[in-house]
Structure formats: C-alpha cells, structure tokens
Amino acid sequence: MAASTAKQTLPPRLPPLSPVRLAPECSLRLNFHSPLRRLRPFPFLKASSLRVEGSGNADAVRARSMGVQAVLDGFPYRDAPKEDAPSLPKPLSSGESSNSATDGSRLRVAYQGVSGAYSESAAEKAYPNCEAVPCEQFDTAFQAVERWIVDRAVLPIENSLGGSIHRNYDLLLRHRLHIVGEVKLAIRHCLLANHNVKLENLKRVLSHPQALAQCEHTLTKFGLVREAADDTAGAAQHVAYSKLKDTGAVASESAAKIYNMNILAKDIQDDCDNVTRFLMLAREPIIPDRDRPYKTSIVFSLEEGPGSLFKALAVFALRQINLTKIESRPLRRHRIQGSDDNDNSSPKYFDYLFYVDFEASMAEEKAQNALSHLDEFATFLKVLGSYPVDTSMI
Ligand SMILES: O=C(O)C(=O)C[C@]1(C(=O)O)C=C[C@@H](O)C=C1
Predict the structure, then answer these.
(1) Would 393 be classed as within a structural domain?
(2) Do 168 and 200 have their domain in common?
(3) According to the lineage, what is the superkingdom (predicted)?
C-alpha cells in the first residue's frame, strides 16, 4: 500500500474529549456494585441540573425516587442507552469477553495510538473481531468508555523490560472504570526507515518512550539519537508521511506494512522475551467464576509508620494469597498537615498509593477476609477489578 493511500484509509483518532455538562434531559446512572461498601467508597456526586449526591445504596434509592434514572459511579453520562435506563446496570458476567456488544453489534474497543500500534493488536487479541478505535491519549480512551462512545478500552500497564506505565496507574484511580481482563502481548520491535534509506544514513530514531527503553542497547550500538513519540505506529507514520531521510522509527512489522516502510532490522528489543501486559477496562465489573484462575487488582494508602507496609502485605501472606505485582505511586494531593492543630511536626509531602495484584478473586472468602483485614487500618482502599488471568503466554 502506498503511504498516500494509507493516509486516506486510516480511521481518525479520537481527540481529547471536553468535560460533559449535564443537560436536564440526560440520563444518570448509579453504579452500586460493591461487595464491601467501604472498599469502594462512592464519591460525592453532583450534577448541576439535578443536584444529586450519592454515597451508597440509600442514596441510590433516594436518587431514583427523585426521578434520576441512572448515574454511573457518580459520573453524569450523555448518550446512556434508553433501553436499560429504568434498571441499575448489571455487572458483566465473566463471559464478558464475548466479541459483541449487548445489542449484537461489533464491540468497539478504544486504544491509544494509531493503526499499527501494539495496543491495537492487544485490543484485537483481547476482543477478537472488535472494532479497534484509535485515541490520541490514554485519558481519551478512559473517557470514551465512560461516555459510551466505545464499549471497552485496552491499555498497556507494564512491560517485562521497561517496567510500569505509570500514567495508566494514575488514570485508573482518576477514572471510574473496572478492570475486566488482562492480555499479554509479545512485543517484537523493528527499526523502520523510508525506502532507499540505509542504517548509516540515520541520525535519529522516533518511537514511544517504552519502545525506546526496550531497545536501549541496540539503539546505543547504532549510535542513534532517541526522540519520543506518542506511540510506535505514530512514529512510523510521521517518518513515512514527512519522507524523512535521516530518521527511523521503532515500531512493529505491521506498522511497516501499513506505512509502506522498509525494515532495516528485526527483533531489536534488548531481550527476546519482551512482553507487555494490557488491561481490559469496562464501565461495569465482572462477576468472577470459579472455573479458572483469577487475579484481583486493588489500590490502597497507609498511615506512615514502621512496618505499616509489612502489616498490609501480611494480610495476604497470612491467607496464602500470592501477590503478582506491587507498584507505589505518589499520592497527589495537598500536603497533609498533622491531624492536631497544635502539631508542629513538619508537613508530609511523600505519601504513597500502593497498587497490588493478587491471585484470588473477590468471590473467594480468603480475598474478602484479606481485604476486610486491610480495610481496618488502610487510610484508603479500592478494588479495581477481579478478572481472569491471561495464561496464553505461560
Ligand atoms: O506505542 C505503541 O505501539 C503502544 O501500543 C504503546 C506501548 C506502551 O505503552 O508500552 C505498548 C507496547 C510496547 O511496550 C510499546 C509501546
């Protein structure tokens, strides 16, 4: 395919979405799925035209008695489907990874990047036969699901060489989507260039920072200056469309085909075992089955003190629950003053959120007990989702 043809046929990316102002005729939806109410505290809810506030089942009932049809985790939604307006949304069953939306149409799945990005392949692996919808930013993909523009989002969360994708950890907490699955994808990078451009002509290489990090040794060996792009395929597209002669791109073999580029080197990642784990996100959680292994992702914060993290992790160890991932992120908020007004101790700037994945589902008693235990002393605790483990790469 010629680059100019590819330019015309590629789907447009969703640009960043502006905030929703709730119109009086809009439906609102309350999502009160919570096995343990304190684990998933519902935030203060405000909708300018309806003045609804909600924090639990009683508020859901009150909101409905006020004529509110639906509120999705405290977020006002435009374009909520009319047919399910009278009833509260049902959690998805664990068979939710079916390839069609509830009305039988193809599932629309948001990913960040342009056609040929690894995220597009991950979306297609997670939901075969889906319509993959490109988004400019991770944030847009979250919002597209929240606003019913698409049915799901598939976003990278960690890579076996480059580590965690911190932005998506932060967005998981800022948005109100549920993790309903994970998908692992083998990442095999190529060095792409325009036709008739040789390796010795290249001075620079463009790609996603994660991809550049995964090819650190090879790119150093080639003596190329790295430049960050939004995604790997976007880098290839830029090099192709701008007809650059001194710049290459690190991207997939499929990006080379789509943008009609030459592959100068294959498998340039620093280790042949290069795997990225993606999360599948939906508006509603799934009900876990007992037929296959599940994982649960949670996020919590703790009072500072000796052994506080040790104590938190012990709730899992005591119940023989295996942890598969732990990540800490700064808790972004105003600095925390001492609780006592007369407290002259210095203010705290470094508070953390801990993201933990463990091998059990919220349907299992041991997981419920572990989280009830953690909830006794955690200053914040939220379940992000229980979902089947992707065993495809074991
Ligand atoms: O740039 C892409 O193609 C992406 O899909 C993004 C992304 C990432 O964010 O980690 C996905 C997989 C690879 O690890 C490199 C880049």
Answers:
(1) no
(2) no
(3) Eukaryota
